[in-house]
Amino acid sequence: MNQQELLYWVWFSMVMGIGAQIEPILSLYTHPQAIFEAREKEDFSMVRGAAARRLQVVSLEDAARIIEECEHRKVRILPFCHPQYPEKLREISDPPAVLYCTGNPYLLEGRKMVAIVGSRTHTAYGRQAAEQIAKELAAAGIVVVSGLASGLDSVAHQAALAENGLTVAVMGTGHDQCYPAQNAMLKAAIEQSGVVVSEIPPKERAQKHFFSLRNRIIAALSDGVCVVEARESSGTMTTAGYAQKYCRKLFSVPGSIFNPLSQGTNQLLNKGAIVCTSGKCIVESLGIEAKPIEPKGNKPTMDIDGLSPDAKEVLQALLPTPQSMGMLAEKTQLPAWKLAAALTQLELGGQALQLAGKQYVLS
User: Less packed terminus of the chain by CB within 10 Å, N or C?
Assistant: First the structure.
């Protein structure tokens, strides 16, 4: 694809906006360049609301600035027509006009993928379940997909990486941002072997509804979606809804009837989701020949010389007994954002473990 074609696709994505249905207008004009050239003289009443206004005011210069920013940040742009654009996304009714990718975009095609999603606040049970399922899927050669959010999304990504597996992170922001900020190091780790994708261009102001729309991409990319813990009304349940809409297999981890974070998962089971008690359940349901999962023995840990000064300081403060972030902040005198980044580095290196309620112990 040449730069001129790419320019029109980025312009088109900016006009239509995040989460728009692009196929009705593309079926009439076949290519964004034709839309651009016809916008002054033909009837575009099918484009409504804010998109109708953007059709007139967004310029090719605006799109060129996005492309320039992506080149600066080494972000690859995959338009809907690109041969590497994921076929699974082409099949849905509301595919992104373009995807912005870092890492290895080849990972998005030709592999079995399973999303593991769950609550940002979670129990020790939820963490253990997400970790075990993600590791077993990664060991079986399945790509683990999640949303790079705090909580169980992070657990799933980290567990896949710990197994030397592959993982895809779908962001609700542009690549110039990372939400939450403390996951910047996790994002960088994923980019080394996996891929981080977003439909949101750099410099776009983050908006709450972007995260809900992000969930449709998580579901659409995946052959199955596993919900570990979720309240009855939550973003995680939105992802489950998209999985059902797109006819993906939906798995749910059963939980205590007394745990509010299991109300959503138990509700999904009542409505026909497949009971998930291990990664093996998912592997068998998807018809994949499971590879033998061998015990890993002692976890390899990062050489302490490779840790940042802040991470070394936090490592000295950690104990075999749980401590809150407040207690660690008091011990280390680090500001919250530095403490969170240091803890993420230690989690990725296998030296720290996060428990429920953001309690941390030596791993």
Answer: N
- Rounded CA-CA distance 54/12 in Å is 10
- Tokens describing residue 125: 């049970």
Task: Tally the C-alpha atoms within 13 A of residue 84's C-alpha that lie toward its C-beta.
Answer: 13
- Please, are residues 242 and 213 in contact by the beta-carbon 8 Å criterion? no
Range 111-285 has CATH code 3.10.20.310: no
> What is residue 172's three-state secondary structure?
coil
Strands 98-103 and 76-79, bridge-based pairing: antiparallel
Token readout for 294 is 């061998």
Residue 277 token pair: 């008690």
CA 66 to chain centre: 22
CATH fold of 304-362, please? Arc Repressor Mutant, subunit A (1.10.10)
Q: Is the pTM of this model over 0.85?
A: no
Segment 273-283, tens digit of pLDDT: 999 999 999 99
In the chain, where are the structural domains located? 3-85, 111-285, 304-362
